[in-house]
Each structure stands twice: as C-alpha cells, then as structure tokens.
Specification:
Residues 5-232 form the ABC transporter domain. One of its GO terms (molecular function) is ATP binding. This is ABC transporter ATP-binding protein. By secondary structure, the protein is of the alpha/beta class. The protein has eight helices and ten strands. It has helices at 43-51, 92-102, 107-120, 136-148, 166-181, 193-196, 216-223, 228-245, and strands at 3-14, 17-28, 32-36, 58-63, 66-67, 77-80, 154-158, 185-190, 201-206, 209-214. Helix 2 (92-102) packs across helix 3 (107-120), helix 3 (107-120) packs across helix 4 (136-148) and helix 7 crosses helix 8. The radius of gyration is 18 Å and the shape is globular. The structure holds adenosine-5'-triphosphate (ATP). Adenosine-5'-triphosphate binds at residues 14, 17, 19, 37, 39-45, 82.
C-alpha cells in the first residue's frame, strides 16, 4: 500500500487564532478517508491545505510524494469545495464544458466525461438551465460532477452530500465506493455519522486537533461503544480530561 496524502505536523493559524494544531495524517492509496468533526473544527482548512490553496503555518504536506503546493498535482486531484465555485450566468452544461476545457480533455473524452458526471449526480435533464435557477442541492451536485470530470486519481470532497436527498446520496456513495475499487483515493469531510461508517479510516477532528483515528470498527472497539457518534463524544471528553490533567 502506498501513501497518497501525507501531512506531517501541520499547524495553521490565522493571525493569532490557531485553527489546526500539529496534525499528522497518512492516507493510503485506494482508501476512503473520512475527516469528521463539528462545524468550525478545521476540516475545510485542512482540505484547502492538502489542495495547496492554503499554506500551513508550520509542517509539511505531500501528495503523491510531491510537496504541496504544486500546480501539476491539480490535474490529479478532483476538489469539491464547500462553497460552490460555479458560473451562475452559464448553464450546467456550459459550466461542465468550461471546467472540462481547463483540464484540456479532448472533445470526445469531454463529451463522455460530461455525460457520465451529469448522469451520476442526476443533472442530465437540467443541463440546459442556467445555474442561477438551480437549487442549493443542484449546485452541490454540479460541483461534484465538476470534481469528477477529469477522472482524477485523488478526490477531496468537502461535505459532498449536504443538501442532497437520501436517494441521490445513496447513489453518490455507491459511486464513491466504486471509484475506491478502481484504486482512487478519496478524502471526504462529513459530520454525518452514517457516512463516516462507510470510510475505511477516520480522523476525528475537534478544535483543530485529531482526537482519535482508526477504522470505524477499531474506534468502536477501542472505546467499547457501538456508535461512532458516541465514540466522538467520548474521545472529545477524554481530550478535555487530558487537557485538564496536563
Ligand atoms: N481565512 C480565514 N481567516 C480567519 N479565520 C478562518 C479563515 N478560514 C477559516 N477560519 C476559521 O478557522 C476555523 C475552522 O474553520 P473551517 O472552515 O476549517 O472548519 P470546518 O470544520 O470545515 O467547519 P464547517 O464544517 O462548518 O465547514 C473557524 O473558526 C473559522 O472561522
């Protein structure tokens, strides 16, 4: 198993505010790795640092054995941000075509990939509509389709299923699992525990720190609890206790 994403003692502060504290993570290739944690715990900042959009204050990040940031790496990464970066004046189809052209896909491949990605997220019947008329969930789906367009080796998905109905959520997860079987590496942030269950490895983040990590089964065994939600609460409680003692 090779390591696809490696974070070594990454910390990040915005001014005096410390947002990430000494995070070390390694994500093996072909894994679904979940970052779970409450709102504001630092997940998005961590993902942006892995993409290279934000720089760590201290520490190192490597993706595919290459130091981040690196422009060439972006061809191998599909990044779905939490805030949709779409052109509202363009239709869904035009948005997809624009992003496909950035990846320099040839016309035939472009056509196939756009059809695949739009179908996957259930947007095929809505591609001629301007994005300004899309619902929030449709915009999320279009963002996911864009992240998948260039068939990237690595997917970084920041809360990909927020605002998406249960049926489509299920098919998106089926596709994420299929992509994993193809050997893709997928890092996903979520605060939905049943999605966390589907990950191979988890890192539980709270207040910019990893409070526990392991497979869902390992975590549940370690804490002697059957639900990940309770594991999270217990791990957080132990962290508070540790903090009090030290
Ligand atoms: N550019 C910035 N300048 C100052 N503070 C920032 C900046 N970006 C993020 N933060 C702060 O860092 C903290 C972590 O934010 P982040 O978005 O990474 O959390 P999150 O776990 O992804 O939350 P959510 O699930 O709500 O997206 C928050 O307190 C946020 O206000």
């Amino acid at each position: 198993m090779t390591i696809t994403i490696l974070l070594d003692q990454v910390s990040k502060s915005f001014g005096k505010k410390s947002v990430l504290n000494n995070i070390s993570i390694s994500v093996d290739s072909g894994q679904i790795f979940g970052l779970i944690g409450p709102s504001g715990s630092g997940k998005t900042t961590l993902v942006k640092i892995i993409v290279g959009m934000d720089l760590p204050s201290t520490g190192q990040v490597q993706v595919l054995n290459t130091k981040v940031p690196n422009l060439k790496l972006l061809q191998k990464i599909g990044y779905m941000a939490q805030a949709d970066a779409l052109y509202n004046d363009l239709t869904g189809q035009e948005n997809l075509a624009f992003f496909a052209s950035l990846y320099k896909l040839n016309k035939d491949v472009q056509k196939k990939r756009i059809a695949y990605a739009a179908n996957l997220v259930g947007l095929t019947p809505h591609l001629t509509m301007k994005v300004q008329n899309y619902s929030g969930g449709m915009k999320r789906r279009l963002s996911l389709a864009i992240a998948l367009l260039h068939d990237p080796q690595i997917l970084l998905l920041d809360e990909p299923t927020v605002g998406i109905d249960p049926e489509l959520r299920k098919s998106i997860w089926a596709e994420i699992t299929r992509l994993k079987r193809e050997g893709k590496t997928i890092l996903i942030t979520t605060h939905v525990m049943d999605e966390a269950e589907k990950c191979d490895q988890l890192a539980m983040v709270r207040d910019g720190e990893i409070i526990s990590s392991g497979s869902p089964l390992e975590l549940k065994k370690h804490y002697g609890i059957n639900s990940l939600e309770e594991v999270f609460l217990k791990a957080g409680g132990e962290k508070d206790e540790n903090n009090r003692i030290s």
